[in-house]
Amino acid sequence: MKDKTHRIKLLNEFADDVLEGRKLFEIRENDRGYQKGDHVIFEVISKSGAVCPQHRLNDREYEITYVLSGWGIKNGYVVFGIKEIKK
After folding, report:
1. pLDDT in tens, 5-56
2. How far is 58 from 54, CA to CA, in rounded Å?
3. Is 48 within 8 Å of 14 (Cβ atoms)?
4. Whole-prediction pTM value?
5. Positive or negative, the Cα torsion across 63, 45, 23, 26?
6. What's the maximum distance between 2 C-alpha atoms anywhere in the chain?
7. H-helix or E-strand containing 12?
8. For 3, which of 30, 65, 71, 83 is 20 to 30 Å away at the CA?
9. DSSP letters for 32-76
10. 79 Cβ contact partners less than 8 Å away, ≥ 6 residues apart
11. Are 38 and 81 in contact (CB under 8 A)?
12. Residue 27: which H helix or E strand, with range?
């Protein structure tokens, strides 16, 4: 099966931490079937839902390195590790 690329929204308050490598994980509802090896591209938004088009994280691509479900994670949710794909 081919790895998927997921385009997901990320609140501005978390975007700098992802960009600077301090936040290496995401907690998400598993409505997309996230799998190790899939790719994630972020779209940074404000709390009101407006896109922050100038944020440097926009359109950077990350690989999902690990997926955790169960083990105290709410049913239907996952925690996944991310690593930036350098181009």
Report:
1. 999 999 999 999 999 999 999 999 999 999 999 999 999 999 999 999 999 9
2. 8
3. no
4. 0.89
5. negative
6. 37
7. helix 12-19
8. 71
9. S---TT-EEEEEEE-TTS-B-TT-TTTT-EEEEEEEE-STTSPTT
10. 25, 26, 27, 67, 68, 69, 73
11. no
12. strand 25-29
Structure tokens at 39: 């790719």
> Please, what CATH class does the domain formed by 5-84 belong to?
mainly beta
State the amino acid at position 61 in one-letter form. E
* Whole-angstrom Cα Rg for the chain: 13
CA triplet 33, 35, 41: central angle to 5 degrees? 85
